[in-house]
Design a protein that fits this description.
- With 613 residues, this protein is α+β, with helices and mostly antiparallel strands.
- The chain contains 23 helices and eleven strands.
- A hairpin with a 6-residue loop joins strand 7 and strand 8.
- Helix 7 packs across helix 19.
Length: 613
Amino acid sequence: MMQNLTPRFSYRQLALTIIAGVYLVSFFYYNQWNKGAIIGGGDPMGYYIYLPSIFIHHDIVSLKQTAQTLFSYKVYPPNSNSPCGIAECYVTPTGNSVIKYTLGAAILQAPFFVIAHGIAYIGGYTTDGFSLPYVFMNGLSILIYSLLGLFIIGKVLSRFVSDSATALTLLAIALGTNLFAQQINMGAMSHPSLFFLYAVLLYATIQVFDSKKLNYTYLIAIALGLIACIRPNEIVVAVFPFLYGVYSIKTWKERSTWIFQNRMLLFKAIALFLLPIFPQLLYWKLVSGSWLFYSYGNEGFDFLHPHILDGLFCFKNGWLSYTPIMFFALIGMVLMHDKNKKILLPLLTFLAIHIYVINCWWCWHYVNGFGNRPMVETYPLMALPFAYFAEWTIRKWYTTVLFSAACIFFIALNIFQTYQSTQNILLTEDANAVYVFNTLFKTKPSRNNLVEFDIAETQPEQLYNPKLILEQRFDSIPYKLEKDQYKNMTIESLEHLGISKGDWLRATAICRNDEDVNSIYEQSLLVISIEDKETNKTKVWKALKVQNKLHNETNAIWTFAKHHTDTITFCTKIPNDVRKDDTFKFFFWNVQGPPILIQSVWLEKVEVDKSKE
C-alpha cells in the first residue's frame, strides 16, 4: 500500500509564516538602522557597546577610543557627567567608566556582531563597530530571536491545545502586543532576547518534568544564567521551573524529593548558571575593583511605593492600555485550574513577583517601551493561558467569530499605534488617555491634539465671548527666559481674579525660539496651577510645552523649529473642588532647556458650547 507523503496542513506553520513575513516587511519598511539606532545612544547602545570595545577598540576599561568613534558619527553628543563621555556609563571609585547595563544581551548579539564584522570587511565599510553592517545586524538579531521564541512557543502549545488555537495565540502575541513594536521602533532592546530565553526556559522545563528528560535541566540553567546576565531582576523567573507541577502538599513533597535525588545534577546546573555571569563579575572587578558593583548610579527600586496600577493600566506606558489583547490571557488563567494545574501556581507566583518588582523601578513607566516593556519577556509563559482561552472560544461558531474579530481589531490597533509611534504622533511614555483616544487611527494630529498631549484635557473647538483677565507685553524688547528661570504673571486668589469653579480659561502667548532643542523634556512651560490656600497642595497643574508648538506644521510631538515666532494657546476648565480663596498661579517656567523669547502673554475667560463639554 502506497504511503501518503502529502504534508498535513498546519495552521501553526501558516501563522509563523505570516508573522515572519510581517516582521521582515516591517523591518525593512521602517529601516531603523538608518535612523540613529545604536549610534544615537540609549539602552540599545548600552547593551551593545561591550562588543566593539572588547573586540575592536580593546578599551573595555576606559572606553575612550570606543566613545570617540561613537561621537565621530555626530549623532550622539558627549556627556560631561561621564568620564568617557557616554551618558550610559557612570564613574566608579577607581575613576573608570562602567557601563550601567549588564553584558548578557551582548553575549546573544555576539554571533551577529561577528557576521557584521565580516560584511564590513568584505564590503569596504569602516570596521569600527558602528558602521552600517553592525547597526543592521544588531537590529536583525532581535527579529531573529523573536521568531525563534515564537517557533518554540508554537511547539510547546501544540502539546496542550489544538492547532488552530496555537495559531491564533502566536498571531496575537506576535502582532497584537508590544513585542511587535520592539522589532521595528525601539532599537535592539533586551526584551526580544529575553522573550526568546523565556521560551527556551518554558520548553526545557516541560521537557524535564513532563517528558522526564533530565539533561534539559542544563538548558534551564543556561537560560536562567543568560536571563540574569541581561536583566538581573529577571532572575525571579526561576520560580517557574522550581514550582512547575506543584499544586498541592503532595506534589510539593514530590518536588522536594526530586530535588534531593537529583542534587548532583543540580550542582552541575548551578555551575552552568554561573558560566555566563562570570564575565560580568570579571568586568566589574576590572573597572571598579570589586567583584560585585551596582552600575546604575542613583537609579534604583522603591519597594515601599510600587506603581502597580499605573504600570498595568495608565496611559503613561501602562501594559494593558497598549496591549489590551492580553486581557484574554488573564481570563485564560481561570481555565487553567481545570486544564493544566501544573502551570497555574508557578505562573501566578512569577507574575505576582515580576509585576511588583518592575513597577518598583524609579522609572516605572519605562521610556522607549510602547507599553510596559518588561512584560514582553513574559509572553511565552502568558501564551499558555491565552491558548486555553482561545481553545475555549473556538468550541462554538459564534464565540469563534467574536474572539477572532476582537483579535483582528486589537492586532490592527497595535500595528497602527506602532506606526503612530514611528511618526512622532504617539509617545506612550508621556501620553494620557485624552490624547490617545483623540488621535485614535489618525495619521495627522491637529494642533488641539498636540496641546492635549500636554494638558490631558480635550480642547474645545469653538470659543465665545472672551474676557481678558490679565495681559503682559514685551513689545520693544522680548523677555528672555533662561534655563531654570520662572516668569510669574500673577499669584492671586481665584476670587480676586474673578475666576470660579466651572469657568473655562484660555492661556495664550507669543514666543520665539532661536536655539536647538534636543528633547521634549528640555522645553519651557506655560503653566496654570491652583493650590489649596491652607495646605499648599496642588489641585490643578496644566503645563503647555512651548518649543514644539512653534511653527510645527505636522503637529508631531518631537518637532522643534528655530527662528520662528508663533502663538501658543491652551484651554482648561476650572474643576468643582476649588475654593474661591485658593491660590491661582500663571507663569512661564524654563525647566532645563535653552532660552526662549516671550513677546506677550495673556489670560482670558471664555465660553464654550455646553453641549460638547
